[in-house]
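Here's what a typical entry looks like (V-SNARE coiled-coil homology domain-containing protein):
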Amino acid sequence: LKCIWAQNCRVVSTVSMVESAKIAVIAVARIADQAVLATCFDTGASSTEKQSFESAISSLLARSSNAYPRWKDRCECDGCDGTVFVLADAQATCITAVGIRDPKFPERVALQLLRECAEKTYNLQGSDLTDAVPNSLNTALRKPLRHLMKTYNDASVDKMTKTQEQVDALKGVMQDNVKKILETHVTLDQLQNNTQSMSSQANQFLRQSVDLRRQVQLRNLKLKLIVVACVLAVVLYFAMPFLDF
């Protein structure tokens, strides 16, 4: 039972390591003859995964014939959900490649890893890079490549990404606040426009009321004058015989 339990623990540990490892492979290749000088795979990588990443690296090597210093490129893997990033060194002698399992892994961090890998490779094997035969630097570069893989598998290495996420979140809050302020401003403008419109309508109604009152007064005055004229006419009509007499 203890033996079975230990085997199960090793299996669970291996599965957890595969799930948590974002970097599947780091490689160094020479541009001139497209020779792969060193390759370091994650210990949990399957044979199918290795073939997929190796095929992607070969495809990128074929594109690197006209590479210049700090040339970069990327390629999606066919047999797995992975991406390979490559970067030429400052001398355009070699390219460093990294295979990433995590689709959300930032390209900026991958290029940072490749720059560091290129610097370490040149510092350790600079004089041997032009003459080394394929896969001859596996032993010499295994330790630094594994160290890079372990370092960049740690999520805390990308502090800038976390900072950027916090900035984006803060930006979203600020945008929401500005939107609310603008909506409030629009509401105030609408209220002000409605108030001005109501004030204009009230003034117009007041003017119309004054005009109507004047018209009514004028009509009443005309009516009174007509009545007075009629009364005078009747009085004169009946008074005319007496005046003639």
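The chain has a mean pLDDT of 83.

More examples are in the samples folder.
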